[in-house]
Design brief:
The chain is built from 5 helices and 4 strands. By secondary structure, it is of the alpha/beta class. The model has no long low-confidence stretch (mean pLDDT about 90).
């Protein structure tokens, strides 16, 4: 398997292609974050990673809206409500689901993933799936706490990239 974070080589593409390049300016970009209170020791770390990434990208803190919900399964309705706001560039759902003795974690992860994909399609606003799914608590901690692997950071970067990319496509 190829690690997605390995730096790729420049592509040798023919001339004349219309390649849309998004702006890098985030001055007026608004990002919503919906966070699960369930497993808050983990989701709080994801939120900190996400906010740090948005600050790195130059977002004004006033342009970040945070909504807390009971659990990961409750993130889609709040994501959809934020995505329907015309000013929102992207919305991130943050949660942590750890596998237990039953299939409940798989059901939650699948439902949330499908709902977020539908929300992205129907609203035209990127709904970023930031629900960490892990087989063990140790895996979840490694994805939520570690500075280099804090997935909240990655999810926020994806949100900004998608918001700016869609803005560029719509303005082309």
């Amino acid at each position: 398997m190829v690690d997605a974070h390995i730096e790729s080589q420049p592509l040798d593409l023919p001339g004349g292609l219309n390649i849309i390049k998004p702006e890098t300016t985030t001055d007026d970009l608004q990002i919503g974050i919906v966070v699960s209170r369930y497993n808050q020791a983990l989701t709080g770390q994801l939120l900190q990673g996400a906010v740090a990434a948005l600050a790195e990208r130059g977002l004004c803190m006033q342009n970040i809206t945070i909504v807390w919900v009971p659990g990961s399964d409750e993130t889609p309705p709040a994501v959809e409500a934020l995505a329907q706001k015309t000013t929102m560039g992207a919305v991130i759902a943050l949660g942590a689901v750890i596998e237990g003795e039953t299939a409940h974690a798989d059901i939650i992860a699948g439902q949330v993933s499908n709902s977020l994909a539908r929300i992205s399609s129907t609203t035209g606003t990127p709904a970023i799936n930031g629900i960490v799914t892990a087989r063990t608590a140790e895996q979840a901690v490694n994805r939520c706490f570690t500075d280099k692997k804090n997935r909240g950071h990655d999810f926020a970067m994806a949100a900004v990239d998608m918001a700016l990319t869609l803005r560029a496509i719509r303005n082309d």
